[in-house]
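Table S7 (text form). Paired inputs.
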Amino acid sequence: MATLEQELEHLADADRDIAKAELHIAELELTARRLAETGGDTTLTHQLLATMRESVTTFREQRRLIAETIDDMRSGRRLEIEDAVALAPPGGNEPIPPATR
């Protein structure tokens, strides 16, 4: 579990990753158009575009989850790691004894 500050950094990273990927997609679309106009083979270019679009979808889902975590932390529905550790019972990391019969 991370702190709110860490999650905000993750959100900024996700936004940067999405922006970079979208820029690469736009550049690749331009390359595909130029190849098509000159009679070049665009098969691999279109395959790469499909992969990159799938990646952006994954990046957006990850961003949504990060934003949801931030909302939960701000509303108190999810604790930051320091709070969770403070609330943990003493000896919380000890192994659970086997059940008795």
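Next pair, protein 2 of 2.
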Amino acid sequence: MADQRTGTARVFVLIASAAVFAAGGVVCFLVLLLGPAIRDGNPVAGAIAYTVLSLATAATAVAFAVRAVDTRRVVLGGCGTLLVGTLLAAGAMVWLLT
């Protein structure tokens, strides 16, 4: 049975996943709003890539956090996945914008 620290870590990962998903929506909106000012690259493809990758990252992090047995695995699996996925999403967006 999970202890209280593991449950708290899971809630932290769920909140962080919601924040990553919300940030994906905000970034998508801002890129599409400021897209005409970008002369090179494809802002629509960048916004879509960021949103899709952030959604996949959030879903994977939640799956890792829910299935983890102890606190260490919840934090490393959930938060680590969120960190790496967010950096990959931002890198893909910048690459498609330039």
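The mean pLDDT is 86.
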